[in-house]
Structure formats: structure tokens, C-alpha cells
Design a protein that fits this description.
The chain contains 27 helices and 7 strands. It is mostly helical. Helix 5 crosses helix 6. The two termini are 34 Å apart. The chain binds zinc ion.
Amino acid sequence: MTNLTQPNNALLYLKTLLVTGVIVICSTSSALAAGEFGPSNPFFAPSTLPFQAPAFDKIKDEDFQPAIEAGMAKQSAEVMAIADNPAAPTFDNTIVALEKSGQLLDRVMAVFSGVTGANTNDTLQKIKTIEAPKLSAHQDSIHLNAKLFARVEAIYKQRAGLKLDAESLRLVERYYDQFVHAGAALSEADKAELRKVNEELSTLSNTFSNKLLAATKDGAFVTKDRASLAGLSDAQIAAAEQAAKSRKVDGYLILLQNTTQQPDLVLLTDRATRQAIFEHSWNRTERGDANDTRDTVVRIAQLRAQKGKLLGYPSFAAWKLEDQMAKTPEAALKFMDAIVPAATEKAAREAKDIQDVIDAEKGGFQLQPWDWTYYAEKVRKARYDLDDAQVKPYFELNCVLENGVFYAATQLYGITFKERHDIPVYHPDVRVFEVFNADGSHLALFYCDYFKRDNKNGGAWMSEFVGQTRLLGTSPVIFNVANLPKPAPGEPALISFTDVVTMFHEFGHALHGMFSDAEYPTLAGTATARDFVEFPSQFNEHWALYPSVFGHYARHYKSGAPMPEELAARIRKAATFNKGYEMTELLAAAELDMQWHFLTPADPLQNPDQFEKQALEKTRLNVGYVPPRYRTTYFSHIWASGYSAGYYAYLWTQMLSDDAYQWFAENGELSRANGDRFRKMVLSRGNTEDLGKMYETWRGAPPNTKAMLKHRGLEAAPAK
Ligand SMILES: [Zn+2]
């Protein structure tokens, strides 16, 4: 089971690609038969249901593509009209007009992204394959539109004299920064160069992804010796046998997961098997075959260094962090450097505990990375004796939701919930609640879709069908999705504590969306920076263990009896288990990411293994038994998704969430006054103010790592 504060949940939070701030211009949509699009299409006009909720009782698969095509065409026309407007540029005729454009596309894409993520089928996947590159090309092209940029720039330059309110001023600055960030202010020659670099980068990212996919598949561990898989359950061994069969090989096959560590290592008793699987994982992309990614990643790093310089920055990292809360790579590095000693010291203490077990068993070897999870599990069992079967009867899903997740929000923010059965849903498992403010006024609709299905993406996430914005007069329609085990009909859904935390986490995102009180879509709700957006969700996790909340929902599903204190204490104590390892592997990956993006165009092409070794040494993270969570050559987050020079965000938002919870601890803990203040000064504010300033105004000080280290058990060991 995954812990929500970890990076394999990169996609926990998915937002539609189309924020109004990213405008698309395209005149090629007629190239594909757009099909019929008219008033009979349920996306043609805003839904007439409460909160403009999607009319899932009317939406059919074949409605999406014509609506997406029409949405792009309509937005193109809207944006052209803005760029070609003969009138002098004003805030209203340019910036506000851009904010109002693309409503049809937003409407259909919010629903399309929702159902392709949570309830997809072949038809929808096909549409997605066809439309995704078009949508992304649109996004890329807009910011290099010289006419449009000239208007945005003119308004930006006059902004001081325009008497704009603070949020409107922020909007002008965000628009200008986004254009400049994408290269709009470059000379035509530099723009051409940038396009060339971007094009090669996008090809290389794609090459990297394809190689990694193939390498991970090829890297599977195969054995004919059933005994070497001792420790796995019969069902797991049968699955391994089936996996081998489906590839037409003899024996048993263990697939690789994305991360360095592999989940089966916790169970496998045979040390040689553990080592072999680990090495398959570690070397998957460095085998000198067609799937070796070393040449690809060093070229990406080199091109990015060039891109940073073209855009006027000392490094790619400096360019990338400009619009983040941390603002500079130096700030992110300083933050990470300060946690390294605490994390590696805790990892060293954990390693000693593990070595003690190895020695007690007369193992006769030194702890290696492939031994860690296997022996850590033994330590965990000996120390906490926490058995899922024992705790699950106290975590019945509906009780956790209404008496825990909702209850905490009621205590903090005064909001209440009423289930509605009249709002159409995309699957019978989906439940809908209307959310009311303390004064009884309507706040939002909240959908939850918690059970695992074959046609659902893995993990858990939040997104919205309708975003809040005063400009367009819309209220939030938010949904949470997870993959919890579905019980047999008539049986209660009993979940693990990890799953409980997942529900609190995703609901923290939901609150960020529901409390949004912004004028403009670009600045509303969760449309914030990568190193901020996981803050409200991780913050909300804290209430899961808060005594009065825990006592309210952790009740036996049959008797209603509260969880025995002795068991609850074990859950609390186990919360800091293995955190030294987890923090160290995260830090190692985050530092690797940052070091790669500090290269300058003057640096030669690197040798990736040497570079990796030096980068880890330099940052004091060359810890043999804790390898980086991802190695350079299979670090997909940074070479093929949006986390380049951004992996630190996972740790940064941990700091924010723990530091924020510390404020509550210092100011009377859980109370309406504290909740209302947090809602007013942070959760409702989206991206309407500089995020660092917003945080500091609420907290009364900049964030620091003290609470984070304490909460995660990373303080120095008590003197003996
Ligand atoms: Zn999240």
C-alpha cells in the first residue's frame, strides 16, 4: 500500500489540462470530421442541473469528440478576435476576455478527463489518443503568438496606472509571466531556436518514455525455481506463473514496478532472489541494449541547460522555479540540505535495528538495499504488532467518511453535508453530497467514487467538473476518486488506516476546490504551484489521528465500540516507522533532479553514472543501503513528466502541511475560529496572491522544517 505523502502518487492530484489561462489557438480542427454538434449535444450549453452538474443521464460517449472539436474551434475564434481587436488593449478587452474564452472546451474537458480517468472504455481511450496531441499543441502555440503577447505586454506595462484591485493585478502579472516564461519576449531568431530545442526535447522525452516502458517490461525477473519465490503467497505465485505464461516463457515472472525498491522484496525469504530482483530494477535502463536511456537523458539535460540560457536564466532549474513558491533553486536546495542530516541519521538508526535482526538470526552479512524492506517488516512486526485484520473492523468506509472526514470539516469550517440521490452519476458506485456553509447557504457539490474498478486509473485523486469563479458565476462541483477494495454485496467496506489517510488527503484537495472564492478562473482553487498544491491535502491528513476526530469515526462496525486505546496507540506509534528510509530515498531523488538541472550549456555531455555518484556524494546522500527512489536513468518524473527541477515539491509541501498543523497546535488546535481563519486566508484564496506571502501572512512567519522533522520522527535520538 502506498503512503500518500510519497511521490508515486504524482498523479494523485489531476487537473484538467485546460485552465483558462492557457489559451489554445488552432484552425486545423476541421481536418477531422467533427461530427454533429448542436443543441442536442449535452455540452452545447451549460447544464441546467443544480451547480451546472454534468448531465450524466444524457451524456453518451459519442458526444465528447464533436464537443471537444467544437470547443477548440470556438476558443480559436474567441482568441483570434481578442488578438485582432482594433481597439487599444485594455484589461477588459484582453485579459478578462481571455478568461472568458474557452468555456465550451472547459465544460467538455472537465467531464471527459473525469470519465477517462475513473470510468473509461475503448471508445473514450481512442478519442483521447486522437485529441491529446491536438490539445497539447494548442497549449504550446498560444504563448508564441506575437500579436496577443503585444497586447498582454502593453497592459502589463501600464498596470500601475490602471487602478486594478489586487486580484486583477495579480492576474495581469500571471498572464505576462506565463507568456514570458514560455518565450514570448524573445527575438524571432531566439524563438526559432527555442522551438527547435522544444521540438527535440519533446521527441527525446517520448523516446525516453518508450525505452523505459520497454526496459521495465524486459527487466522482469524470471525463474523456473518455485522454491526461490518462498515467502510469496500461493495466489502471488500463481499470478507469477500466469504472467510467465502470457509471455510464453517457462516458470515464474515477477514484473518490475516504477520505483527502485520492488514490493515483493518485503516477502521474499531467499536473499539471492531479492538481490537479483533488485538488480533487475536498478539496471533496467543501463544494459547497453536498445532500451538503454543513458544517451537520451544526458542529451535532455544538455538541451534543457540551453533552454534555460535562451530564456535568460543561469540554469534550467532557475527558469523552472521562477513561478513556484520556492522561487529559486537555491531556496529549494537550502531547504533540502537542512533535512539531510536528520533524515540520514534516522535512516542509520533504522539500519542498525535491521542489522541487529540480521545478526540475531546469524545472517552473517551486511545490510544491502535488497534486504531493507524484508527486515524492516520484521522490525515493524516486533515493535508495533499492528495487524490490518485487527484494525479494519474499526474503519468502515461510510463511517470514516461521514463521522471522520466530513465531521472534521464540520468542526473546523462549520460546513455540513446532505446526500443527494437526484444528481445523475457516471457509475452507480458514485455518491453525491451537497455541501452547505455554516449559515445554510449552498457551497458546492461533492462526488465520491471510492471503489476499485478495472476501468479506473490506479491511485487516488481529486478534480472538478465545474470550477468556482465569480466572473462566470459558477460554484464548485468537485470529485474524489480512489481504489479501495469493494466489499461483496451486503458486506461492510472495511478499510486500512492507510486508506483512511487517503480519504482525508483527497478531501483536503476537495476543500481547496470547494472553498475557492476567486474572481478569475486562472487564479481559482487548486490552480496553484506544484510546490503548494499538495499542502492543503497533506495538511488535512493530520486530522485523521486527532483524538476527538479519531474517536468519532474509529468505531467497530458491528458494536459501535470505540477502538481500544492500546490499539490506537500502536497506530499512532507506527506513524513514524521507517521514515528515515523514506525521507532519505526521496531526498536523494530530489537532489539528483536538482543537480541535473543546474548544468549550464558550457558543461560537456555527462556520464550519467559518474554524475549520479558525484551528485549524491556532494549532497551527502550517497547512502549505500538507501538508494534514490528513482535512479537517473529511470527517473520518469523528471525526464518525461512535469517534475523536472520540481521533485523537491513533495518534500516542500510536507514541510508546509506540518508547519501549518503546528500553528493549529500552538493556537488552540481544532476550532471553528482556527478553521475559519485558515479558510479565509489560505484555502479560499487559490493563487490570488504570491503563495509565499499568503502563507506567511497566515502563519505569521515563513515555513520551517522543525515540525516536519518532529512529526516524522526525524529529530535526533534521545540521549541514552
Ligand atoms: Zn494529493
